[in-house]
Amino acid sequence: MAVSSEKRGLSERKKQILKAIVDAHIEGGEPVGSKYILQSQHINCSSATIRNEMAELEEMGYLEQPHASAGRVPSELGYRFYVDALIERYAMTTNEIAQINALLKAKMGELDQILLAASNLASAMTNYTGIAIKPKLHSVSVEKFETIYLDHDHIILVAVDSDGNVKTKHLHSEAQAFTQAAVTKLARVLNSTLVGLSAEQITLPIMMRIEKEMGIDSAIVSNVIKVIYDLLNESDSGEMRVSGIDRLLQYPEYSDVTQLQGLLGTLEKKEDILNLVSQSETEDINVLIGSESQVKVMNNSALVFKPIVKDGKTLGAIGVLGPRRMDYAKVLATLEGLSGNISNMIHANKQLNGGDPDGGNENGGG
Q1: 356: which DSSP letter?
Q2: For residue range 125-181, what is the model confidence (pLDDT) as tens digits?
Q3: Comparing C-alpha atoms, which of 166, 163, 160 is closest to residue 190?
Q4: Which helix (H) or strand (E) holds 235?
Q5: What pLDDT is attached to residue 247?
């Protein structure tokens, strides 16, 4: 999501002040006042002028004032403008590039191993949570069904998918009680009609056929089909590995236990983040700030990820999750370096070149 062209009509002084506030807030996490801007930045104007500019930036939606007597902090729009137009390129240190190049020397043969190692390194280098995603490259079908009768109210459905994964679901009777005979018959009907089909291939005519074959026990079919859909979609969703979750605890943004639990639940369930990655329409780095993710528990966070693409096909993605005030310059440079190295491993086994012994930012937009 880029800032619209009409929103970009900021004066150079406003841009300088906004950038200074974002940089300071990323580093310290505290509201930034006009006194700091005047003392630490090369902005040739009075304190009153800076205060007026900050007030205007707030009115325009780029800054927020958390308390009446406090300074300002960047808003979601402020961070978006910063990422799109103001960010300086981070120059990686020689040591950081050496860490990335070490991935090549590991000579890992499996892509999921490479992605996991890359996400671990991304977490360590940025001090945020690392994410590795390996999408399913094919639709998953069920190869075998088994049913286990427990009592009139409960059965267990066992499904073996085409990837060899065994899934079990505990079903509670809704429309009618289970019988041993009906449960045995259900397994036979499911195996004769659904084996080899993916979720999208289970159409209404097929469901009607199953209901017809179940006869007087057809009332249990709809609940069973819903569970099978869930099993197949769960298998189709891809794999996600998370590293460095504990790093989030050091940021005050996650001091609220309820908010942290919600975010950890999203990471554990994985579907929301997998959907965000799968919906990406670009091979470039994606930066989702706060509510841009449309995941409520991530409103105070930012998700940055880079798809790994070969011959137009997405093989996976690596990313980091952290507070909205994350060090975007370093995160972008880290993910570019890691993704470039992974692409080299896939294509030509080349290493990164260069490196700044001290690291830091270079002037110019990113």
Answers
A1: B
A2: 999 999 998 876 556 788 899 999 888 888 899 888 776 777 788 888 776 788 899
A3: 160
A4: helix 221-236
A5: 94
Q: Where are the alpha helices (DSSP H) in 177-216?
A: 180-193, 204-214
131 near 170, Cβ under 8 Å?
no
242 beta partners: 131
Average pLDDT for residues 196-220, to the nearest whole number? 84
Assign 237 a pLDDT band (cuts: 50, 70, 90).
low
Specify the DSSP class assigned to residue 194: T
User: What does the block give as tokens for 266?
Assistant: 């999203």
Report all structural domains of the chain as residue ranges with CATH numbers, in order of start: 5-86 (1.10.10.10), 90-136+238-365 (3.30.450.40), 142-236 (3.30.390)
Kindly state the helix (H) or strand (E) to which residue 12 belongs, with its residue range.
helix 12-28
∠ at Cα 185 (180, 188), nearest 5°?
135
Q: What are phi and psi of 34, to 5 degrees?
A: -65, -30
Write down the pTM of the prediction: 0.71
